[in-house]
Amino acid sequence: MKKLYAILSISMISSAGLAQNNVTFSANDSWVGYVNVFETPANGGGYLWGSQWGIADLQTTINTGANTMTLQPNFNLYAADPTDAYWVDQSTGEGAKYISASTYVEPGPTFNGNALTFQGDVLSNNLDLTKYEAKFYINALDSTNGYVNTIPGKTFNIPASGHFTVSATAGELPVGMIIQYGFTIYGRNANPANEAALGSIVIGVQSTAGITEGEKNSIRVYPNPATDLVYVASDAAVDGITITDIAGHTVYSSNQVSANGIDVSGLTSGVYMLHVTTGSDMKTSRFTKK
Question: How much is the mean pLDDT over the chain?
Fold first, then answer.
């Protein structure tokens, strides 16, 4: 992969004279996108070209309010012109190229020579893994040797759910290497009509072990998962409630808590964020609609 530029917030812990960079996923960091394009395996699978892209063009959605990142297969290449034979096989209607879409950060030379851990949580994952690969990683790219990744062993499949973590030692990240960490979705460029069937992965940060997110934020959302109704309990006066989907779109808004609950029966199954405004504060809890 080629060079990217970004900055990520970190915490520094002294250890044996070196710094330990512990990075937990944050939607508010400066994520950057890059695409590499390949022939399909049937056409030899050869590398064609690569280019820096906008995050949305990758089919990555970042929701800073909910602190989530949604990863999907690429659709915009197909949607731009379905009659373009370069991108769409005109005989089968399938995408004509394989896309490696990477969303990651590049923290710069202050990370060189220090150990690094990158971690987060998979909040949901229904990506069609028969057609796509989904990876998280730390890279150390050698700009003097074609940007080859010198630590390919630090790339792993994104799990179906739960926590993920990857670490690299100080010796694996020497001065001169370009350090990156993030995510990649690899597979055929897809017809947007198949978006729902192909699925997605939502990355975020789960609440502290032993403490529910609602308790941590002094609000409680129940039942969770929900089918028809959700109820909100808050230890502070509520000025407003908003529910957003994983892409950040508002699906419900009210200025009061109803004793009869919030009707979510019409929502599509998935993960949602419920935001409660109490005075100048906003508290957020996550729930799943079955």
Answer: 85
